[in-house]
Amino acid sequence: MPHNDTASSSAAGVAASDESYDATARILVLGDSAVGKSSLLMRFCENRFDSNFVITIGVDFRVKTINIQDREVRLQIWDTAGQERFRTITPAYYRNAMGVLLIYDMTDPKRMPPIAQMLTTGFVTWMNTRTRLFRSFLVGNKADMAAKRKKGQALADKYGMAFFETSAKSGLNVEQAFRAIAERVCDSYDLLSGIPPRAHNNGSVANSNAVKLSERRGNGGAGGNGGAAASGA
């Protein structure tokens, strides 16, 4: 049974080493204000939804450990505020990010321009190589309420990014999106190399259903450039 744990913390509270996990992946969540970034994170870390969730001020930080290829990978997830006055803070976090989820609101066409602008201005400084593009996913939230989905897919295709349609309210593809970016980061940084798989109490190695990370190279990984998981149930 994969081990999962969730927590809210500050950067100073992250232990340098811990036998409860094998590797650490740092994920940055970006997007305009009120597109549902914090709600997606709440769904992923706590498996719940709160329509009265308070808007993030500055930067929030959460931790969740997931099992990838029978190794325990701790995700450090930075949830950034989308308000204009906080956008000068966000670039400071690009430097340490290993993977990025770009979130937009699928129910509001006006939410697309900020994402498009981010991809062509400040954010492109961070992902100025093919490798960094490989570690950035576009995520459309509120899919349970949306009717038009082509714009998000077209934007993802333009930049060669994986695309997911999610719903923090229903849970649609939330786990899949976060797990896919975590697997992509582990693959890109070779984080699990040399780390032996964890064994069950009886000494046998857990039988993982995950596709080998090496098999994801070159085919777009989970979600792919077209985001196969994005249109799934």
TrEMBL record:
Record Gene3D superfamilies: P-loop containing nucleotide triphosphate hydrolases (3.40.50.300)
Compositionally biased intervals (Gly residues): 219-233
Keyword Flavoprotein tagged: no
Pfam family, one: Ras
Keyword GTP-binding: yes
Family: Belongs to the small GTPase superfamily. Rab family.
Protein name per the record: Uncharacterized protein
Organism: Perkinsus olseni (Perkinsus atlanticus)
